[in-house]
Amino acid sequence: MSPFRNNYLRYEELTRIVHDWARANPGFVRVTSIGKSVEGRDLWLLEIGRDPDRMRAAAWVDGNMHAVEVCGSSVALAIAEDVIALHRGENPRDLPAHVAERLKSILVYVLPRMSPDGAEAVLTSGRVVRSNPRDRRPHPPAPRWVTGDVDGDGAVLHMRKPDPAGEFVADAELPGVMLPRRLEDPGPYYKLWPEGTIENFDGTHVPDPVYLSDNDIDLNRNFPYGWKPDHEQIGAGPFGSSEPESRAVIEWAATHPNIFSWLNLHTFGGCYIRPLGNAPDSKMNQEDLAIYRQIGEWGEKIGGYPMVSGFEEFIYEPEKPIYGDITDFIYHTRGAIAYACELWDLFARLGIERKKKFVDYYSHLTRDDLLKLAKLDRESNKSRMFRPWKRFKHPQLGEIEIGGIAQVVGLNNPPYELLPEVCERQSAVYLRVAAMAPSLEMEVRVAQGRVEIEVANSGYLPSYVLDSAKKLTPDPGVFVEVEALGGCTIDPRDARTEVGHLEGWGRGLYNEYLFYQRSRGSVSRRTVSVPVRGTGRVRVRARGLRVGEVVKEIAVE
Questions:
Q1: What pLDDT score was predicted for residue 213?
Q2: How far apart are CA 248 and CA 253, in angstroms?
């Protein structure tokens, strides 16, 4: 079994694996660095598919934009490995033969780790980092928490200190488990803080812990569509795409309009989050929504997760969207089927009842739910998460204890033992999404002094991919170009013909009346007829920004 299917990889091992794949499969795997992090680590992108410079429909996967969410890297690499296996003639996910062949005809781009600096900090220390372990903000001389391994044991956990106003009590039977205080609870009571120190501490006043107190940017608030400044959207950064990681991804997306689907991998929760992020479904393009419903059905049946609206089920405050996230940017500006996946269905595994709004899972938890988590940790995670408390003399806070929850394995990411299942199921879902790609085909013949060209789309999706993308510029339509190579001539006015859009055969889910079964007319193919004089050869090219191109040459006699 590949190491990323049962472990979370450091940067050096991830780098070795992607380059080993490229060396072992030079005909259809290429590794490109699309940028560097602040600490100088490459953002490695796998390009999978034969003849990668020939533009055609492409599916994108990225993982680990949030540093502690390292499962995203594992699933991204698993998808890449499964696609490589298909090109080798294997079929690891038991796909129908024609679906496997379809996947071999497209390009797959995989960025397994968007935040290599942050992931490295997490995997070496257990420190909780949102995206990157840096802080370039100018700070006033006010107190703030700086997390770190103060006792030198190689882990960054929590600190507790007895306090009559403490909000927590210790569970009497489970070491490391702290419970929210109830009115009926006897003492002792505790204050609970992240392991670390306080910058600008006055010796008395402890500041509130904030998850971005010592790491400045949340990459998933830094993308330019709908971007808001930090006072309106915490983690946004000084301006949209201010970070080298988000900028590298934006530049690749902007120069590759052939990307038709985009999977953004996160943890945890166990759901897929789709557009719209800023309005209810009643305001969404209904043709787009039908496509997402189809993907959602696969997600629930194969992946085991529901698909939810970003606005209706995944905003933290009523009527306040999350600004600057990547899927909004890709959906609205690139016209691709963009959605996020929150890997690791922890709530379902704890047996917690499905909430009306999925985001309420994270806040509407009880003490019993926390005890269920401790039980899962013992039974399925080898007690990696809850650590017993150890006494320590803190340089600022005096006598404290260090212990509590180690978040990386078991909470933010699945236990190593469950990781293979997560990889397999989520790869199986996304391979089906990738197989929806539009497929441009062309037939050329010469008859009676004319070049007859038939262009068609045999893929599930139309050449424009999403109905909402028709309005984007430049034009996503299909064009036919005819070039005389010598010995014959073509009127320059006939050299280029706009074909327009070619529909796919798919309609999404619940987008037609099942008892009124009718096919559409000739919406998936067009014929172009171009007069040609003399004898020789012509080169014919059909192309579109979303579907790439097909080129053929034919003799004119």
A1: 86
A2: 9
- For the segment 26-56, what is each residue's pLDDT rounded down to a tens digit? 999 999 999 999 999 999 999 999 999 998 9
Rounded CA-CA distance 409/384 in Å is: 7
Instruction: Confirm whether 3-123+216-344+413-434 and 440-556 share one CATH topology.
Output: no
How far apart CA 237 and CA 218 sit, in angstroms, is: 8
Q: Residue 335 in contact with residue 545, Cβ under 8 Å?
A: no
CATH fold label, 3-123+216-344+413-434: Aminopeptidase (3.40.630)
Segment (H or E) for 440: strand 440-447
Q: 186: number of CA atoms within 13 Å, CB side?
A: 1
Give the whole-angstrom CA distance, residue 114 versus residue 135: 18
Q: Show the tokens assigned to 475.
A: 């034009």
Q: What is the rounded distance in angstroms from the CA atom of residue 8 to the CA atom of residue 4?
A: 6
Which residues have a Cβ under 8 Å from the Cβ of 240 and sit 6 or more positions away? 222, 223, 224, 227, 324
In the predicted model, residues of the chain with pLDDT beneath 50 are none
Strand 144-147 relative to strand 107-111, pairing: unpaired
User: Which one-letter amino acid corresponds to residue 212?
Assistant: L
- Here the tokens at position 312 are 């209706």
Q: Could you say which DSSP state residue 320 is in?
A: B
Strands 307-309 and 271-274: parallel
**Strand runs (DSSP E) across 171-291, as ranges?**
178-180, 190-194, 196-199, 259-267, 271-274
In the chain, what are the domain boundaries? 3-123+216-344+413-434, 135-214+350-405, 440-556
Q: Which two tokens stand for residue 214?
A: 């010592």
What residue type is 446 in one-letter code?
V
Contacts of residue 87, defined as CB under 8 A and 6 or more positions apart, other chains included, come to 25, 27, 28, 48, 49, 50, 104
From 527, 520, 552, select the one nearest 455 (Cα to Cα). 527
Question: What's the pLDDT score for residue 364?
Answer: 87
Residues making up the chain, counted from first to last: 557
Q: Is 200 helix (H, G, I), strand (E, B) or coil?
A: coil
440-556 maps to which CATH number?
2.60.40.10
Global pTM reads 0.95
Per-residue confidence (pLDDT) for residue 435, from 0 to 100: 97
